[in-house]
Structures are given as C-alpha cells and as structure tokens.
Write a structure and sequence with these properties.
Blueprint lengths: L3 H6 L7 E4 L3 E5 L7 E7 L15 H16 L7 E3 L3 H4 L8 E5 L9
Antiparallel strand pairs: 1-2, 2-3, 3-5, 4-5
Bound molecules: adenosine monophosphate and zinc ion.
Length: 112
C-alpha cells in the first residue's frame, strides 16, 4: 500500500522513533510545530478518525496511554496537547490515522 505511515511502521522508510510496541509506533514529526512534536499511529492502516469502528476502537485508548507515557518521558510536566486532524477541512494531509502529541511551549486556543 502506498502509505507513508505504513512504510514508517514497517521500517521501509526511516523515522526517528520514540516508542514502539506490537500495535503502535510513535516518531518525531519531520516538521515540528513545538519543541516536542511526536506522531502516534496504529500500525494497522486506519484511514482517519472516521474509520474507527467497534472492532478497532480499543487502539484509541492504547494510543492515549502511550501518549501520556511519552509526555512523561519527554518531560512535559506542565501539560501537552493531543491533536487529531480528520479530513480535508480538519487539515489531515496523511491518510493514516495519527495523533499529534505536542508540548514544550504554551499552546494557543483555538488552534489555527
Ligand atoms: P496531518 O496534517 O495531521 O495529516 O499531519 C501529518 C504530519 O505528518 C505533518 O505534521 C507532517 O510534518 C508529518 N510528516 C509527514 N511525513 C513525515 C515523515 N516521513 N516523517 C515524520 N513526519 C512526517
Ligand atoms: Zn497506512
């Protein structure tokens, strides 16, 4: 499948990984928008948040637990932001479900 995040999950293209288990991988964003900017993805190809189903939904809880673990490891003790962009108007550019974990600076709200 021609999916850049599947290729990262399968080690077919390089990335700077910060976490990996049998179902999840997390790596530094190539174009970071904060001092810490990690992308957390399921290894399974799920197109977007619109494709979360009864069968695959448990991965979301696991991703959020991993996010908290990474945030602690990266020293984000004053907080962080988890973002999911879904679809064109949501700003999704890579069509493989991913969560942005961002921190290390004060975040604005509402975002962009
Ligand atoms: P989104 O706009 O929510 O779909 O986010 C896609 C993110 O993937 C952007 O922040 C990009 O900088 C990032 N990105 C794209 N290609 C790569 C890559 N090969 N390695 C790491 N991050 C990437
Ligand atoms: Zn994929």
């Amino acid at each position: 499948m021609d999916c850049i995040f599947c290729k990262i999950a399968n080690n077919e293209i390089p990335s700077s990984k910060v976490y990996e288990d049998e179902k999840i991988v997390a790596f530094n964003d190539l174009n970071p928008k904060a001092p810490v900017h990690v992308l957390i993805i399921p290894k399974e190809h799920i197109k977007s948040a619109d494709y979360i189903t009864q069968e695959n939904q448990s991965i979301i809880g696991e991703i959020f637990m991993v996010a908290s673990e990474i945030a602690k490891k990266q020293g984000l003790k004053n907080g962080y932001r988890i973002v999911n962009n879904c679809g064109e108007e949501g700003g999704q550019t890579v069509k493989h479900l991913h969560f942005h974990l961002m921190g290390g600076r004060k975040m604005e709200w509402p975002a962009g």
